[in-house]
Amino acid sequence: MKIAVVMMTHRFDQSVLREFGRLRSGIGDDDEAFLLSDGSSLAPESVRPWICEFKFSEIASRARWIIGNDVLRNGHLAWLDFYDRYPGFDYYWLVEYDVVFSGAWKDFFDAFRNRDEDLLCSHLRTYSDEPDWYWWYAIEPSVGMTLGNSDLVRGFLPVTRLSRPGFECLKNAVSSGWCGFHENLIPTLFSVSGLSLLDIGGDGPYTSPELTERFYGGSSDHNGSMRWDPPILLPGFRKNFLYHPVKPLPEVFMPDFDSQGYLAVLFTHLLRSIRPVLSHVTKYHHCKILSVSLALEIASGHHLYEVKAIGRDAYRSGQIAWRCRFYLMVAHYAYAVGIFSARFISCTRKAVRRLVKSFGGFN
């Protein structure tokens, strides 16, 4: 079995190059790694041997119509261009530049090496599972063919694997007139064509039991580790998890950037570094294992689904006097670092109330 691992990127800063190096170190002896770029940025000489460039104006002509004027929602056209150049692989992993895996990529790839599904991706949902998803309308089959709501399947494709038969199916479909948003088009096309689909994690209808919550968790629109927005500044809260979108500081600090959430994340990592200093406070509140970082992860709301699970397990095992002391601990830590602002407390209070409510309230 021969596999291509393709990182899609329009930038070549150090964080991207570092993750590409990690990707390359995770491939097998018969596999190959590539950088798929739109050519908008000059790649450094150190990675030129792995570069495969395309021009969007050229690949756009493959489709009957496209969404927008860039590759963002037309990613399948760039993928097909790559497949035309490198058709000799059995499977193709396609990884966006702003994906980070908090483990060894080899472990991730090996987990699926013996799986033969034609499409692997995250957040696979049918129309009935998620009828309010915005992009359901953005798909058209070939002329003369109709799709009903029961046919529609969507996925989230920052980390995707396609089989060679899958690429052939996609190539023929686009040639015959299929078009639309690739996160809707590819899963729906494969489903109605009788090809197989598998979710790489989460807890959706296409997730096998052994993969449930294994490589990612949460939703795709706010608090999941694999989501479209908001950006993740400091990934790695959970080992062997996929994170997207991970953005560098210059890209994060923009006018539309959620400053409240990211300040909380920044303080999370600050408190991790001074955790030993606050150990006496932890003992004072009889919470021996709950880390400072969890408190502010809750305040930021970005990893609430993980904290709920950890907290629930800790409470049930009797390791933490959780419900009656948790809010006091959060407030104490916030005060200790001088960020006891009204806005932060409001955010913390709401998050903790939701958490406590999920445990059945105070006793």
Write a concise keyword list for the protein shown above:
363 residues; alpha/beta; Spore Coat Polysaccharide Biosynthesis Protein SpsA, Chain A; two-stranded antiparallel sheet; 13 helices; globular
Fold and architecture overview:
The protein has 363 residues and is α/β, with parallel strands linked by helices. It folds into two domains: 3-211, Spore Coat Polysaccharide Biosynthesis Protein SpsA, Chain A (Alpha-Beta Complex), CATH 3.90.550; 258-358, no CATH class. The protein contains 13 helices and eleven strands. The chain has helices spanning 14-25, 56-59, 75-85, 105-111, 164-175, 182-192, 249-252, 259-273, 279-284, 292-300, 304-316, 322-336, 342-358, and strands at residues 3-9, 32-37, 51-53, 91-96, 100-101, 119-126, 139-140, 153-163, 179-180, 197-199, 242-243. The strands form three sheets. A seven-stranded mixed beta sheet has the order 3-2-1-4-8-6-10, with helices on both faces. A two-stranded antiparallel ribbon has the order 5-11. Strand 1 (3-9), helix 1 (14-25) and strand 2 form a beta-alpha-beta unit. The longest helix is centred in the C-terminal third of the chain and has 17 residues, at 342-358. It is globular and about 55 Å long.
